[in-house]
Amino acid sequence: MAAPKKGRGPSGGQGRPGRALVIILIAMVALTGGMFLSGHTTPRLGIDLAGGTSITLKAKNQPGKPNAINPTNMDTAVGIIERRVNGLGVSEAEVQTQGSDNIIVNIPKGTNSEQAREQVGTTAQLYFRPVLTVAASGPEQPAPSGSPTPSGSATPKPGESATSDDKDKDKDKGEEATGEEATPSASATTQGRAVTEGLKKAPTPTPTNSGEPKPSDSPEASPSADPATAKLQEEFAKLNCADPEQRAAAGKDALPTDSIVACGSNVPGSYEKYILGPAEVSGGDVDDAQGAIDQQTGEWIVSMEFGSAGAKKFQTITSRLSQQQPPMNQFAIVLDGEVVSAPSVRTALSKNAQISGSFDQQSAEDLGNILSYGALPLTFEEVSVTTVTAALGSEQLKGGLIAGGIGLALVVIYLVAYYRGLAFIALLSLLVSGILTYTIMSLLGPAIGFALNLPAVCGAIVAIGITADSFIVYFERVRDEIREGRTLRPAIERAWPRARRTILVSDFVSFLAAAVLFLVTVGKVQGFAFTLGLTTLLDVVVVFFFTKPLMTLMGRTKFFSQGGSWSGLDPKRLGAQPPLRRSRRVSASTEPKEA
Fold first, then answer.
1. 352 φ/ψ angles, rounded to the nearest 5 degrees
2. Reported confidence tier of residue 580, pLDDT bands at 50, 70, 90
């Protein structure tokens, strides 16, 4: 006869609860250590708690493109704006769509946040346009006699010129100083005199390297009799770039194929007005641009790199411009209808180019950032700007923490009053859950850009109730077993499978709701959904690896096993019934049957 198989002992947390507790303890130590080693000992706060600026941009219909506002272009615009803002070092900015035609930009308060806000406000398309004419503009400038012609005299932005990265730097430097194709002097005063002199002369002169004006022999010098050209010249004559309204309206809503008038400024308070030809290169043709220090001259420059198609376009335009006399040897970099730079061209350029001039670090980096990330597929208008001060954010954070403290205190009071000794297990479980949540949130900030905003704090507060609910489910299952007459240790093990199913179903529903909410919403509501989903997952981890093993160990102690009145497991208080015993039925005939 085969010997009966030896039954297996309890597995997992039932037989070896200490192993599960060691695992979660190691996890807590590892997360806490990682938090301190990374230097991020607090969760990153969102705009509404730390302070910052929230900007709402609304997409505008473009002339000739009635269907330009679509999900693809909106997503592209979000990516470009995000890269532009983050390119300034504001790595915690949030850029996301809201509805079908709005983009929300959240810029935290801190380094470069004001600079980022200024660049977010300039969100139109970026184009490279040839300069036809340029003149100083402002109330202090006398109005020119007669309409300016495309050969009108002017200079580029202070000392700016475009050169090829592939050319010898020493040669470029020499050309910039004395060569026939050198740009005019970098001095703003000298440029102003050249512009004024050019407007006074007739026929319209252009400056030479020696500073003496000479008549332009460009084929574009003579005024055109075309009505469109005459209208453009009339707009140019009337334009006063010192007037903010005129400056903002100049060049707006024009098609890339249109010639336009536009404003620019090379010195604060000093403005230039331009007549610009049709756009020949767009910002989308620029693969990369950045401000850098020229290793030979020690000056700040902006280096550009074009894609294959953009390189051909840029070579075509610079080849033509390099043969022109100033100012028609310049190309204007136009963003949102404003000329942000107008370097002159001394030689044909292609894939790589440099813009040199009187740049400082900020102006070089700004221009490089605009060139890299300025080519948006849509134009936007700024609908609203909301700024939250750090003081207001601190008040909101304080209010959220007070609300969380009140909620936690109410849960503790309920647990102590109703479950007595079992409240000790529940409170330790809440503490473990809180430590895990805090460390993970602190690490997720630099890892994925998670920011704790006010809705996320609300999600963490709701999670207190979800976690406590799991403890209550398990405690009530244990109490049910004791009411049926079982002792504590068997009751703990028999109650676990039933409680486990209920806890998993409940947490699955909560996690599913959080996931759906995260996917279908935008903005701060996603912070609530993310926190709710995270804490729901941690609830499962804490209950399985801490609460249940700790309950098993506590069940072996004298305090709980004897069922004292303060243990929360007193059989008398629970109304336990004595165990039912089956009675044997006595046979009617007790005598043995005869064979």
1. -115, 140
2. very low
Using CA atoms, how far apart are residues 335 and 126, in angstroms rounded to an integer? 5
**Which residues contact residue 418 at a Cβ distance below 8 angstroms, ignoring those fewer than 6 apart?**
568
Q: CA-to-CA distance for 31 and 208, rounded, in angstroms?
A: 69
Whole-structure pTM value? 0.54
- Classify residue 189 as exposed, middle or buried by CB count within 10 Å of its CB (0-12, 13-18, 19+): exposed
Listing DSSP states for 44-97 in one string gives PB-HHHH-EEEEEEEEEPBTTBTT--SHHHHHHHHHHHHHHHHTTT-TT-EEEE
Cα dist from 194 to 152, 212, 324, 327, 329, whole Å: 10, 9, 17, 11, 16
Mean pLDDT of the chain: 74
Answer for the pair 310, 281: CB distance below 8 angstroms, yes or no: yes
| DSSP-assigned letters across all residues of 209-224 | TTS-EEE---TT-SPP
Question: What is the pLDDT confidence band of residue 6, given thresholds at 50, 70 and 90?
Answer: very low
Cβ–Cβ under 8 Å, residues 69 and 100: yes
Q: pLDDT category, 110, cuts 50, 70, 90? A: low
Do 334 and 340 form a contact (C-beta atoms < 8 A)?
yes
Cα–Cα distances in angstroms (integers) from residue 589 to residues 583, 593, 594, in the given order: 18, 9, 12
**Per-residue confidence at 446, pLDDT binned at 50, 70, 90?**
confident
Burial class (CB in 10 A: 0-12, 13-18, 19+), 88: buried
What single-letter DSSP state applies at residue 284? Answer: G
For residues 157 and 341, what is the distance between their CA atoms, to the nearest angstrom? 6
- Split at pLDDT 50, 70, 90, the class of 473 is very high
Q: What is the mean pLDDT of residues 284-307?
A: 84
